[in-house]
């Protein structure tokens, strides 16, 4: 699609890089969230998509001064501009007995989940029906060297540098993974569809982490899996994609996800 009247915030984020890699040929406009001229630059935008998030809010108690979404929403208050932002599966409880659905409340996981829920509620109060929140599962892509403290990023770093991966939960722990190219495609569909509200965005499949690790290591002869002596309780989750499936064109199978993760492992050998 053409992004002529769409504005994107947060070029350096991992999610933004996933989107740009997939849609590099499209005319996209990226701006800095703290640009003093941002109110003027956003004036004619139909859609603002925010990838930016202050990492301090992953660990510290909520502070509006760190809330980039609140800042952007204040600039768009009273306009007709649609606002798209990203939340997390951590606003749901860590319970994979059933898929998490968008109407669930309570049970947030950690400070990060609590802060994201606060951010969501403040955005809803400010922007109402001009807001689209996408609650993400684990978006997985090539992350070697990005120093992100995520499941896949840390495993890629240690696999490349030490020929081993570390895991502190049972290998049977199930989580929801979505390949980065499919995240980018889904975001494109959501922007085109002109929808608002709260939607999950994942694969909708609870994959055992042991299978994910095995796929990443498949081409790495002699690579080890190091399990923590004191493992944490299994933190499982998967997202219901029933609501979102009416918007996006394709949902992956388990085989699709594991094949993609295998290609990430192969890329670590070749880059």
UniProtKB/TrEMBL annotation:
SUPFAM superfamilies: NAD(P)-binding Rossmann-fold domains (SSF51735). Residues 44-202 form the NAD-dependent epimerase/dehydratase domain. Pfam families: Epimerase (PF01370). Transmembrane segments: none annotated. This is NAD-dependent epimerase/dehydratase family protein. It comes from Roseibium algae.
